[in-house]
């Protein structure tokens, strides 16, 4: 209940699209009854969670922040949602995102942009230079990053304890870094994608956002595993694990890929990255510089593959079986065309058209096949590096801390995505697990995170190292002002 | 052939060392109206305005950087799980019978059918369509 009232008081953040108040209260009641009987359903019984709005949730509107699916009430639960509910978790609502998870700012959905809760924190306010009096005080709020911005904002502002996002090109880790929360992207094939409205079938994964690494491990434990409804999940047995405290770092080999010093990386983050590397070195780990030569092409490769797959995946939205349907009735094709014109925004339409261009017979070989070949080169880079004895890669997650919304919208979506995804994208290309750990506050008082990339299906090792790092860094808690209600009572678990 | 012409153009322009390649603008011939019309027809999505066409141009320019990479002898990669066997389950019906639920989401239906307008009428030609490309 405290969470629900907090959601109401933080409505200006625009983090939630749908708040499932009655069902949440009912679930919470039942969970309490179970605890009184001493029979919790699982580790997550009673924990309030939020889910990004591109996961199907039975009975609750699922929109993907698009006109195309407004009013669409899914008839089924996504597998991950079902798993969480089976554990007894309380679903608070669906969070805001970029339309169809395309974007890196959570600013392009039809429900409006999501505001970063840190814009209202004491830490940011203290550091920001007061502008002239005539300007609206509210106008320099910063973006959350995308595209799972709503989920990150929800977790960061204490309205829920964990949230689900999706990660195709960094969509979970980017907002996690800007909002100061832990964002985990599991290995492709570990968690089922059944029920996640697909963007790029070969790179999508559900992502987990929590306030600390332990929580992420717990949630991962309940979500991972083979799903007969998703044929791209692996069949190996998954055993949920508990993270032990790492005391001896000396057996670890940390790689620092030099190409991740990308153009545009802020000097602050560079300094932070070096400090982190030194931290590991001083603790006895082996820190070596490695090279992933095809990193800078991963964005181009992603651009082609993503638009191509999007063109295919968005073809299902024709207004016939579900979703928006236009009134044009002259013929099937014109109805489809009109529906899609009305339902999709510019970003989505642009990507569909680019994707179709790259898939034209005359361009197929040149662009699509070429991009697939480059993808193999990128994946091989990683294999080589991990094969040479490196255990974990340490990289920055974003190029800078969160920028003000007013500045962000000056460039269009595609340019922004190309700039912001550059550090997170390669892990999606190769399907490797990656986690963003909030590290420190920038000079402007906003959170900055660092990214760890691990070997395929070695989430345990990745999370153990991340947990050690988290403890060393002691990231400060957000200090939201008093008018945001009972914050002190809902403290970190 | 369009392909060879484009390839020829690229080779001509490629310098030795490219710093910050992804920010560099390349000159390239504009996409023809026929191709744009074809795309609109395939995708059943229209460009709406010149911004849309610009966006496509920029996207193509951006993607051209791929041609800098030498991929001789490299196989295209479809999936990161290519080394594993795909899971196939038994061909038994395990769930279904949710007709009512599925029909709930459709706007126009008759009994248990989805209703669509007549299908054998092709999309109007470029001149008759309400699209931006008419003007270009």
TrEMBL record, chain A:
One Pfam family here: Amidase
Class in the EC hierarchy, top level: ligase
Residues forming the catalytic site: 52, 147, 171
CC terms in the record's Gene Ontology section: glutamyl-tRNA(Gln) amidotransferase complex; mitochondrion
Domain of life according to the entry: Eukaryota
Domain Amidase stretches: 9-463
Gene Ontology annotations of biological process type: glutaminyl-tRNAGln biosynthesis via transamidation; mitochondrial translation
GO molecular function term, any single one: ATP binding
Catalytic reaction equation(s): L-glutamyl-tRNA(Gln) + L-glutamine + ATP + H2O = L-glutaminyl-tRNA(Gln) + L-glutamate + ADP + phosphate + H(+)
EC annotation from Swiss-Prot or TrEMBL: 6.3.5.7
InterPro entries: Amidase, Amidase_dom, AS_sf, GatA
Membership in a protein family: Belongs to the amidase family. GatA subfamily.
Self-association and partners: Subunit of the heterotrimeric GatCAB amidotransferase (AdT) complex, composed of A (QRSL1), B (GATB) and C (GATC) subunits.
UniProt name for this protein: Glutamyl-tRNA(Gln) amidotransferase subunit A, mitochondrial
Record organism: Athene cunicularia (Burrowing owl)
Lineage of the organism: Eukaryota, Metazoa, Chordata, Craniata, Vertebrata
Gene name, Swiss-Prot/TrEMBL: QRSL1
From TrEMBL, chain B:
Catalytic activity field: L-glutamyl-tRNA(Gln) + L-glutamine + ATP + H2O = L-glutaminyl-tRNA(Gln) + L-glutamate + ADP + phosphate + H(+)
Subcellular location: Mitochondrion
Chief subcellular location: mitochondrion
Example of a GO biological process term: regulation of translational fidelity
A Gene Ontology molecular function term of the record: glutaminyl-tRNA synthase (glutamine-hydrolyzing) activity
UniProt xrefs under Pfam families: GatC
UniProt keyword Cell inner membrane, yes or no: no
GO (cellular component) term, any one: glutamyl-tRNA(Gln) amidotransferase complex
Catalytic activity, EC: 6.3.5.-
Keywords: ATP-binding, Ligase, Mitochondrion, Nucleotide-binding, Protein biosynthesis
Top-level EC class as recorded in UniProt: ligase
InterPro entries listed in its UniProt record: Asp/Glu-ADT_sf_sub_c (IPR036113), Cyt_c_oxidase_su6a_sf (IPR036418), GatC (IPR003837)
UniProt family annotation: Belongs to the GatC family.
Function noted in UniProt: Allows the formation of correctly charged Gln-tRNA(Gln) through the transamidation of misacylated Glu-tRNA(Gln) in the mitochondria. The reaction takes place in the presence of glutamine and ATP through an activated gamma-phospho-Glu-tRNA(Gln).
Complexes and interactors: Subunit of the heterotrimeric GatCAB amidotransferase (AdT) complex, composed of A (QRSL1), B (GATB) and C (GATC) subunits.
Protein name: Glutamyl-tRNA(Gln) amidotransferase subunit C, mitochondrial
Organism of this sequence: Athene cunicularia (Burrowing owl)
Gene name of the record: GATC
């Amino acid at each position: 209940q405290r969470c629900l009232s907090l959601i109401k008081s933080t409505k200006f953040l625009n983090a939630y699209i749908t708040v499932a108040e009655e069902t949440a209260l009912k679930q919470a009641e039942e969970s309490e009854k179970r605890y009184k009987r001493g029979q919790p359903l699982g580790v997550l019984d009673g924990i309030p969670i939020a889910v990004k709005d591109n996961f199907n949730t039975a009975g609750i509107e699922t929109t993907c922040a698009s006109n195309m699916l407004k009013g669409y009430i899914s008839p089924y639960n996504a597998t991950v949602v079902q798993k969480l509910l089976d554990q007894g978790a309380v679903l608070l609502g669906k969070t805001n995102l970029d339309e169809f998870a395309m974007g890196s700012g959570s600013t392009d959905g039809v429900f409006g942009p999501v505001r970063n809760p840190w814009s209202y924190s004491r830490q940011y306010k203290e550091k920001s230079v007061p502008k002239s009096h005539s300007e609206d005080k509210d106008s320099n709020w910063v973006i959350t990053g995308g595209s799972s911005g709503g989920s990150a904002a929800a977790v960061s502002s204490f309205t829920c304890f964990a949230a689900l996002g999706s990660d195709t090109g960094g969509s979970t880790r980017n907002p996690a870094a800007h909002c100061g929360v832990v964002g985990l992207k599991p290995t492709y094939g570990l968690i089922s994608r059944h029920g996640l409205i697909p963007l790029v079938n070969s790179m999508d994964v559900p992502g987990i956002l929590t306030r600390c690494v332990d929580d992420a491990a717990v949630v991962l434990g309940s979500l991972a595993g083979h799903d007969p409804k998703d044929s791209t999940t692996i069949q190996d047995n998954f055993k949920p694990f508990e993270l032990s405290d790492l005391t001896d770092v000396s057996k670890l080999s940390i790689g620092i890929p030099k190409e991740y010093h990308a153009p545009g990386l802020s000097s602050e983050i560079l300094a932070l990255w070096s400090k982190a590397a030194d931290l590991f070195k001083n603790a006895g780990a082996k820190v070596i510089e490695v090279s992933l030569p095809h990193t800078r092409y991963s964005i181009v490769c992603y651009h082609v593959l993503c638009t191509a797959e999007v063109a295919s995946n968005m073809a299902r939205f024709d207004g016939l079986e579900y979703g928006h349907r236009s009134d044009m009735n002259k013929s099937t094709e014109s109805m489809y065309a009109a529906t899609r014109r009305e339902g999709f925004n510019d970003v989505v339409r642009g990507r569909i058209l680019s994707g179709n261009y790259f898939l034209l017979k005359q361009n197929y070989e040149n662009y699509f096949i070429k991009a697939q070949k480059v993808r193999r080169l990128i994946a091989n880079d990683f294999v080589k590096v991990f094969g040479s004895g490196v255990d974990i890669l340490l990289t920055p997650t974003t190029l800078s801390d969160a920028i003000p919304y007013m500045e962000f919208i000056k460039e269009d979506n595609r340019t922004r995505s190309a700039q912001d995804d550059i550090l997170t994208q390669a892990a999606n290309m190769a399907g490797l697990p990656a986690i963003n750990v909030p590290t420190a506050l920038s000079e402007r008082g906003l959170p900055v995170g660092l990214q760890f990339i691990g070997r395929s299906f070695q989430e345990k090792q990745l999370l153990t190292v991340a947990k050690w790092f988290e403890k060393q860094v002691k990231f400060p808690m957000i200090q939201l002002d008093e008018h945001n209600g009972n914050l002190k009572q809902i403290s970190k678990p | 052939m369009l392909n060879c012409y484009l390839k020829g153009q690229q080779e001509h322009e490629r310098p030795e060392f490219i710093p910050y390649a992804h920010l560099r603008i390349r000159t390239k011939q504009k996409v023809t109206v026929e191709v744009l019309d074809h795309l609109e027809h395939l995708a059943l999505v229209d460009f709406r305005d010149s911004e849309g066409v610009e966006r496509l141009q920029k996207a193509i320019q951006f993607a051209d950087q791929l041609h800098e990479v030498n991929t001789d002898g490299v196989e295209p990669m479809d999936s990161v799980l290519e080394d594993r066997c795909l899971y196939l389950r038994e061909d038994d019906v395990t769930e279904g019978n949710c007709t009512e639920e599925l029909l709930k989401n459709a706007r126009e239906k008759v009994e248990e059918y989805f209703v669509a307008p007549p299908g054998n009428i092709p999309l109007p030609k470029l001149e008759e369509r309400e699209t931006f490309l008419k003007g270009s």
